[in-house]
Design a protein that fits this description.
The chain is mainly alpha-helical and 311 residues long. The chain has 13 helices and 5 strands.
């Protein structure tokens, strides 16, 4: 996860390239459920491309080449102003290059596949991520903690401890989606982006091409998001956000026809209803759903498994 120093540096970068105001406006508009049909003007802006370059340059993997054997030195040789025009031309008729596939060792002795896009495609994904992130942040559930600004494993652990010890919910449904990143349904993801208000058709076409980028030695995928792609973690949160809110709507954010002074009062009334108390904490594809009793935990385990299979 990002260190505090890295997060502060990203905020300074946003302000230096005059992008923070744009991000704040996108967040506010998304909070008000506006539709976004002209996002490409922000994505292809000079300052957004400069910011993407700056953010990628600070990553450890910036020197790692893609299948074309180029890295950040290619941009430095071209010069940032020429490179901006180069990226704008690519965005006008985008066609991603193949993704280099490598196997990364895991602590258990096994390996996991990692996809490394070419440097141009990384910059383009970063440009898109920077614009989509504030829109999505306004829609994401408060208790998902992975791959999000100013959140970490510590926040997820703190929330889990609060629910267990302060709220005294000691029955836990533990869900870890096996092979989640490799099995994301592309059509469903596109519908979820549209439902979130991301309705710029040119952008959606580019995202579709990114999802279907040819993988070295594998071919063109029909599902999944490439682990190693800069935009993949954000897309994974978009996919799972629907499930977060479904669990939340069963209790935490239950929509009642009655008017209550606060949420606490509503939950006290709900305890006398047929609704089952449950609270979600999610970190990437790892869910913890905290329940009041064993029977509720059993029911939500079955319901959540069925819901995720249908998705």
């Amino acid at each position: 996860m990002e260190s505090r120093l890295m997060k502060r540096q990203k905020l300074r970068n946003n302000e230096y390239y005059d992008m923070q105001e744009v991000f704040d406006e996108l967040y506010a508009d998304s909070t008000n459920n506006l539709r976004f049909r002209k996002l490409m003007k922000h994505i292809s802006s000079d300052n957004n491309i400069k910011l993407a370059y700056r953010n990628i340059k600070g990553n450890k993997g910036s020197v790692t080449p893609g299948i074309d054997n180029l890295n950040m030195k290619f941009i430095e040789k071209m010069g940032i102003d020429n490179y901006i025009q180069h990226i704008k031309k690519k965005l006008n008729n985008y066609s991603p290059k193949s993704v280099r596939r490598v196997e990364i060792p895991k602590p258990n002795g096994k390996t996991r596949p990692l996809g490394i896009p070419c440097i141009d495609d990384r910059i383009i994904q970063q440009c898109i991520k920077q614009i989509l992130e504030p829109i999505c942040e306004a829609k994401f559930h408060n208790h998902s903690y992975a791959f999000r600004p100013n959140r970490s494993t510590k926040h997820a652990i703190a929330r889990a401890n609060f629910v267990m010890w302060k709220m005294k919910l000691h029955y836990v449904v533990d869900v870890d989606i096996q092979g989640f990143f490799d099995n994301v349904n592309h059509n469903k993801l596109m519908h979820q982006l549209w439902f979130m208000g991301i309705q710029d058709k040119n952008l959606l076409k580019i995202l579709g091409k990114i999802l279907k980028s040819e993988i070295q030695g594998i071919g063109m995928p029909t599902k999944g998001t490439s682990q190693g792609g800069i935009i993949s973690p954000l897309l994974s949160n978009i996919v799972l956000n629907e499930f977060d809110w479904w669990i939340s709507s069963q209790w935490e954010s239950y929509s009642s026809h009655n008017i209550y002074a606060n949420v606490g009062n509503m939950h006290r009334v709900l305890k006398n209803s047929n609704l089952k108390e449950m609270w979600i904490v999610r970190y990437a594809d790892d869910f913890k759903i905290f329940c009041r009793d064993w029977r509720t935990a059993q029911k939500i385990f079955i319901a959540s498994n069925n819901g995720l299979r249908k998705g």
